[in-house]
Amino acid sequence: MVEQELDITFHALADPTRRGMLASLALGEKSIGELAQPFAISFAGASKHVKVLEGAGLIARRKVGRTQLCRLRPEPLARADLWLRQWEKFWTIRLDRLEALIEAEKSRQ
Amino acid sequence: MVEQELDITFHALADPTRRGMLASLALGEKSIGELAQPFAISFAGASKHVKVLEGAGLIARRKVGRTQLCRLRPEPLARADLWLRQWEKFWTIRLDRLEALIEAEKSRQ
DNA sequence: GGAAAATTCAACCATTCGGTTGACTATCTT
DNA sequence: AAGATAGTCAACCGAATGGTTGAATTTTCC
Fold it and tell me: For the whole model, what pTM was predicted?
């Protein structure tokens, strides 16, 4: 069953809009509208993305009046990370170089 | 550009057949046929999965006679892990519990 | 030289994806 | 009671996904 969880988690993470929403939620609870706002996307579109994230267990919601407040649920991220760290031994030698490279790219942009 | 790399990497990882192929490659170089064998899948189907993995930079190939030998390329895994570790602070408190839980599940099965 | 093996390619298929629009529901505000 | 606001639902669309089959290609083996 762990296998299928990874399917769902990695699929949820494979979309830049959804990763952006998670990043936004890292700063605190957000409504669907607030999550949609940075992206050129309809309300219904955002609602679908939120449903995917919820289906992956990456967020939870609570209703406050007419708005839905979403908050981050990090467990699936931890599981995905655990899976990725299986492979650590294959890259550790080069990870320092990689980290520097990503830093360089970030500041170049 | 880092963003799109994550799209492609996470998408490649979102399929159990492809993750299985990576696991198989962790033990050493494999031909397409050897990669296909554990899965109830056609040769051409396996070839497509391999192409996805290659497109994500997760494997490289070299031709030896009429067979294609694939080997693991861990860099994209390292990048994905780097991204996931951004979120570490959201789960660290509970990671020990999670790790135990996954261990328990593994041995229960 | 000819058969067998390891792949790839092209065409096809059903399903899913990410997006839209428009109608609907629920809640708040006035 | 009448908007306006926040969100969902259902239907649709085009593109991509994961799979197949069958023909073609390259290399090896006899």
Answer: 0.88
